[in-house]
Design goal:
- There is one protein chain.
- This protein is an all-alpha fold.
- Keywords: Membrane, Transmembrane, Transmembrane helix.
Length: 134
C-alpha cells in the first residue's frame, strides 16, 4: 500500500507541476484560488497541487495494480485526465462558483489539453515509481 501511495503522490505532483505551469501562463490560477476565497496565483498553484495529488492518490490506491507498462499507464492517465476535465472545470468548479456547467469554449479546450498532459505524466510517473520498487 505504501508503494501505491508514494506512486500516486509523486505522479500527481509531477503532473500537477506541469499543468500548473501551463495554468500560470494562461492566467487561470487566480480562478483556482477563488475556490478557497483568495485571488492569489500562488494560493491557486498550491490548491491546484493539493487537488492534483489527491485525485492521483485516489486512482493509484484503487487501481495501482493495472499500471503494468508505460503504454498502459499513459492510456489510463489520459483517460483519467479527460474524466477529471469533465468533472472538474466543466461540472464541479462552475457549480461551486455559480456559473453555467458544461460550457465548451476556448478556455475549456485549453483546460482539456492541460488535463490530458496531467494524466499522461501521472500515468508514466506511476509506472516508473512502481517499477523501481518492484
Amino acid at each position: 500500500m505504501g508503494q501505491m501511495v508514494s506512486a500516486g503522490m509523486l505522479g500527481g505532483l509531477a503532473g500537477g507541476l506541469v499543468f500548473g505551469a501551463l495554468m500560470a501562463m494562461m492566467g487561470m490560477l487566480p480562478m483556482i484560488a477563488s475556490l478557497v476565497g483568495s485571488s492569489s496565483a500562488g494560493v491557486g498553484f498550491g490548491v491546484h497541487l493539493v487537488i492534483s495529488a489527491l485525485i492521483a492518490l485516489g486512482l493509484v490506491v484503487l487501481l495501482g495494480h493495472v499500471f503494468s507498462s508505460y503504454g498502459r499507464g499513459a492510456l489510463i492517465g489520459l483517460i483519467y485526465g479527460a474524466l477529471w476535465w469533465v468533472l472538474g472545470p466543466l461540472l464541479i468548479m462552475p457549480l461551486m462558483m455559480g456559473m453555467p456547467v458544461f460550457v465548451l469554449d476556448a478556455t475549456a479546450l485549453w483546460s482539456l489539453m492541460g488535463h490530458l498532459i496531467y494524466g499522461l505524466i501521472l500515468g508514466v510517473v506511476v509506472v516508473a515509481v512502481l517499477n523501481r520498487r518492484r
